């Protein structure tokens, strides 16, 4: 029996960098959370405490700030710059994964126009990018999280089996609400990432709104299918969608009826609907997803 080191990676997690562009009086800013992981031959550090191969996590953090000095660009482009740099820095580093979360800020409106240098946080929604360099291969995942959506009708749920524990009433009309987390893989790395991100996000929203839903599962598939139909640069999309249940409140104790007007927005437990929608003619790239949790 021999004990051996298994898969490993290391890096600096959650480097919070805010970069301000002051090149004109109308400033702009990007607000990022950047995590790097290096892959390669780090066995001596694990087995013998020999750090000769260890590009420090402190240097990785510093690299993120230094690379932000001259502009960040899209989260995907920033991730590509960093991942290529790390993967190319020493012979024993064979790959790098850089994950970027980007938080939106909107200009504060003053007298009807957006202020030059005052902003408000856009909300909980986050844009994400994960770049993986693995030897000669490079992959880009774009994505978003906490895109909270709700429709007040156009959602049914019925036809499910009833075992002895099934109490849920069938419904032909309910509120459907979720917080979409989605990640999609591009077939290419030389793309207009900002334009594609906006396009895919719009497609997800439009498909959620326009699908007459018989289950959140059906909405998830319709949203993924619409993205693959409209955006040929997307190879596959994976989604995680909690079913944010809204229960009609019984107002009869107060002598009131409730004609589908007043709901309790329950926060837990919630159904959790997850799935991938793929093109069957595009080869899989599991390395692109390695280290990205939260999807089946
Ligand atoms: O859209 C839904 N899918 C389910 O799988 C499910 N299960 C449940 O209790 N309610 C719902 N709604």
Question: What report would you give on this structure?
Answer:
With 296 residues, the chain is an alpha+beta fold. The chain folds into two domains: 7-135, Urate Oxidase, CATH 3.10.270; 146-296, Urate Oxidase, CATH 3.10.270. The protein is 22% helix and 37% strand. The chain contains five helices and ten strands; from the N terminus they run E-E-H-H-H-E-E-E-E-H-H-E-E-E-E. The strands form two sheets. The chain has an eight-stranded antiparallel beta sheet. Strands 8-9 form a two-stranded antiparallel ribbon. Helix 2 (57-68) packs across helix 3. The chain binds uric acid. Residues 157, 168, 215-217, 243, 271 line the site of uric acid.
Number of strands: 10
For this structure, what is the CATH homologous superfamily of the largest domain?
Urate Oxidase
The CATH architecture of the largest domain is Roll
What would the CATH topology of the largest domain be? Urate Oxidase
Round the Cα radius of gyration to an integer and report it.
23 Å
Spatial separation of the terminal alpha carbons: 33 Å
Main beta sheet strand tally, sense and closure: 8 strands, antiparallel
Average pLDDT level: 97
The side-by-side strand order for the widest beta sheet comes to 1-2-3-4-5-6-7-10
Q: How many structural domains can be distinguished in the coordinates?
A: 2
Structural class: alpha+beta
Bound ligands: uric acid
Shape annotation: globular
CATH class of the largest domain: Alpha Beta
Catalogue the unreliable spans. none
Helix content: 10-25%
Strand content: 35-45%
């Amino acid at each position: 029996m021999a004990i051996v080191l298994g898969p490993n990676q290391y890096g600096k997690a959650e480097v919070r960098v805010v970069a301000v562009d002051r090149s004109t009086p109308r400033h702009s800013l990007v607000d990022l959370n950047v995590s790097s992981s290096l892959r390669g031959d780090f066995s001596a550090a694990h087995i013998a405490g020999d750090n000769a191969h260890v590009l420090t996590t402190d240097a990785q953090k510093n690299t993120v700030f230094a690379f932000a000095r001259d502009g960040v660009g899209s989260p995907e482009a920033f991730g590509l710059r960093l991942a290529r740099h790390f993967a190319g820095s020493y012979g024993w580093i064979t790959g790098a994964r850089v994950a970027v979360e980007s938080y939106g800020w909107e200009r504060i409106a003053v007298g009807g126009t957006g202020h030059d240098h005052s902003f408000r946080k856009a909300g909980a929604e986050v844009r994400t990018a994960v770049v993986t360099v693995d030897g000669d291969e490079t992959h880009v995942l774009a994505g978003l999280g906490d895109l909270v959506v709700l429709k007040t009708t156009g959602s049914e749920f019925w036809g499910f089996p009833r075992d002895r524990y099934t109490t849920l009433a069938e419904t032909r009309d309910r509120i459907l609400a979720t917080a979409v987390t989605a990640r999609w893989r591009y077939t290419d790395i030389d793309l207009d990432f900002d334009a594609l991100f906006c396009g895919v996000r719009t497609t997800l929203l439009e498909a959620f709104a326009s699908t007459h839903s018989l289950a959140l599962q059906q909405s998830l598939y319709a949203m993924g299918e619409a993205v693959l139909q409209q955006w040929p640069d997307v190879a596959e999309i994976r989604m995680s969608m909690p079913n944010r249940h809204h229960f009609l409140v019984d107002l009869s104790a107060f002598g009131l009826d409730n004609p589908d007007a007043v709901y309790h927005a329950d926060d837990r437990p919630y159904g959790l609907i997850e799935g991938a929608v793929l093109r069957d003619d595009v080869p899989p790239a599991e390395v692109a997803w390695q280290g990205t949790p939260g999807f089946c």
